Amino acid sequence: GNAYVAGITDGSGFPVTSGAFQTTGSFDAFVTKFNPQGSALVYSTYLGGSAGVDRGWAIAIDSAGNAYVAGDTTSSNFPTVNPIQAQYGDGLSDAFVSELNAAGSALVYSTFLGGSAFDEGRGIALDGSGDAFATGDTSSDNFPTANALQPNNGGGLEQHDDAFVVKLGNTNSPPPITPTTVVSRKTHKRAGTFDI
After folding, report:
1. How many other CB atoms sit within 10 Å of the CB of residue 102?
2. What is the pLDDT of residue 188?
3. Long-range contacts of 171-178 (CB under 8 A, 24+ apart)
4. Distances, alpha carbon 109 to alpha carbons 19, 34, 59, 71, in Å
5. 148 near 85, Cβ under 8 Å?
6. pLDDT, position 187
7. Distance CA 125, CA 167 (A)
8. Own/partner pairs for 158-161, CB < 8 Å, 24+ apart?
9. Which residue has the higher pLDDT, 161 or 156?
10. Cβ distance 8 to 42 under 8 Å?
11. How far are the Cα atoms of 7, 50, 181 from residue 168, in angstroms, in the given order?
């Protein structure tokens, strides 16, 4: 099958493809899809704003070929589409979760997830219903939560104090993403990749 990669690039000469979602950038996350032989790009795109640094830490692919990326951003103008959180949280960084369509040409959704301190998305996985589960760490005492097992930061404001898990509902069937489809849990740990 195809290979998918997400990460960060600090160069403006990063290889992108015609028709990609974002063809210019610097210090941005990227999403790249290779053909099954690894010999050619199916698509390659930047994913980021122009006001800071954007890093892609994790990627998951659904059965339709849409790519889901979790990471962190310091860009107040990081691209958002159908967001749960439309505005940057004004801290050191925000986590983000973005879904890119199968062609790599448009975002299905993209949202900030963060508060007034340090937040980063480190892992993402999908279930059989198309729901996305993102995990990471937060030092924000106002990280967005809904239906939370632990609604408050448990350990002060030191970086990476609490882990979080966020469930984002399937956007391919009602209901659309809303704050009520988010479940966050903080557990005094730094969270990374996981599987469902």
Report:
1. 16
2. 44
3. 171/82, 171/99, 171/108, 171/109, 171/130, 172/64, 172/130, 173/130, 176/82, 177/82, 177/83, 177/84, 177/109, 177/111, 178/84
4. 18, 22, 14, 14
5. no
6. 44
7. 10
8. 159/117, 159/118, 160/118, 160/190, 161/137, 161/188
9. 161
10. no
11. 21, 26, 6
Region 164-179: what's the mean pLDDT? 63
Q: What's the pLDDT score for residue 180?
A: 32
Given a contact cutoff of 8 angstroms between Cβ atoms, the answer to whether 97 and 171 are in contact is no
What is the longest distance spanned by two Cα atoms in the chain? 48
Residue with tokens 């691209």: 79
CB-based contact 29:56 (threshold 8 Å):
yes
- The mean pLDDT value for 122-143 works out to 91
What residues have CB less than 8 Å from 80, skipping those under 6 apart? 86, 110, 111, 112
Q: In sequence order, which residues have a C-beta less than 8 Å from that of residue 14 and are 6 or more positions away? A: 25, 30, 44, 46
Bigger pLDDT: 149 or 102? Answer: 102
How far is the C-alpha of 178 from the C-alpha of 145, rounded, in Å? 12
Q: How far, in Å, are 21, 112, 137 from residue 93 at the CA level?
A: 23, 10, 11
d(CA 65, CA 124): 15
